[in-house]
Amino acid sequence: MKVGVGVAGVGVASLRYPFATNRSEPLATVEAEHRRHAVVELAIRDLKDQALAHFPSGRFTANAAWTVIAALTHNLLR
């Protein structure tokens, strides 16, 4: 098991946080992958809190179109 310290840049200051992993890649690679995953999780959270909280119809196709429009809108407004 590898143990490392990550650095999160916040403006001028930076936060340090400990983490442990069982992966064999360099710690910088593991931390970068974790950051990319965190961005995806935030996007999913935002969509669930907004457009995906209430679907407009009981029909699958209408809800599928609603989901696509919500995702496109979310990506355009980011």
Structural notes for this entry:
This protein has 78 residues and is an alpha+beta fold. The chain has one domain (2-77). It contains 2 helices and 2 strands. The protein has helices at residues 27-49, 60-77; strands at residues 2-10, 13-21. A two-stranded antiparallel sheet has the order 1-2. Residues 9-13 have low confidence and may be disordered.
Q: Count the E strands.
A: 2
Low-confidence stretches: 9-13
Rg calc: 18 Å
Q: Which descriptor suits the 3D outline?
A: elongated
* Element-by-element helix/strand order: EEHH
Mean pLDDT: 78
Walk across the major sheet and give the strand order.
Answer: 1-2
The overall number of domains is 1
Label the structural class: alpha+beta
In short:
The protein is built from 2 helices and 2 strands.
Outline the secondary-structure elements.
Layout: E1 2-10, E2 13-21, H1 27-49, H2 60-77
Antiparallel strand pairs: 1-2
Keywords, separated by commas or semicolons:
elongated; two-stranded antiparallel ribbon; 78 residues; 2 helices
